[in-house]
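Marked as duplicate of an earlier ticket. Keeping the data here for the record.
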Amino acid sequence: MTEIIFYTEVSDELSFLTKLAEKTLKVKRKACIATRDAAHSKMVSEYLWSHQPTQFIPHTQGNDDVTKEFTSLELRHDNDSAHLDILINLTADTPIQFSSFERLVEIVTKQTPSIEGARARFKWYRDRGYDIKVHKM
């Protein structure tokens, strides 16, 4: 069964995502980062490439068949992924394909819409018998 982890009271979603991405790469795991739409994918991608002046986080975006086998992180705004290890959800919805992954990570910011959406997703997972871990940041 998919392991579900909620990180709550996150101040900055992209900064926290960067830390998760770096940790994922460090421990040699693979992750799909679920984004809201193409524009959100582009914004997240630009942040991962430029968050530090002397560093970047290698990743692919969408259906990049040429490079996705060489990178451990992919950004997707659809329900398809080659990486079925970790799913990092940046959307407001329960990802349709989440149960195909070993782990689902939900990032919950301090903003009211993020909190309300997370509560609904938490209840949905709990009502279906998933074991959920919550880490307050």
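See parent ticket for discussion. The chain has one domain: 3-136.
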